[in-house]
Write a structure and sequence with these properties.
The protein is mostly helical. α2 packs antiparallel against α3. Helices cover 84% and strands 0% of the residues.
Length: 85
């Protein structure tokens, strides 16, 4: 576990910025990266459910794919909403 934390700290971007908006943008980028990592884990888990023949594997895969779609499209959705305001 400490190895994973140290790897994350070495590869994460510096979140300090000159303004509050820039700091929020940097944190949003990090959140997106973490979300993609969790989505990849969920995709592997759903694949294992399929290999084991669990009955709820299709529901898990659907949930994972919907979650991946939301994580990937999140920044686009936010810029669209900001454009409306």
């Amino acid at each position: 576990m400490p190895l994973l934390i140290s790897i994350y700290l070495f590869f994460s971007q510096n979140v300090f910025a000159r303004s509050l908006k820039a700091t929020a943008d940097k944190l949003a980028q990090e959140t997106n990266r973490i979300g993609l990592g969790v989505a990849l884990f969920g995709l592997c888990l759903a694949g294992i459910y399929f290999m084991l023949g669990k009955q709820d594997a299709s529901a898990k895969m659907t949930q994972v794919l919907m979650g991946i779609g939301i994580v990937i499209l999140g920044p686009s959705i936010l810029t669209f909403i900001k454009g409306l305001a």
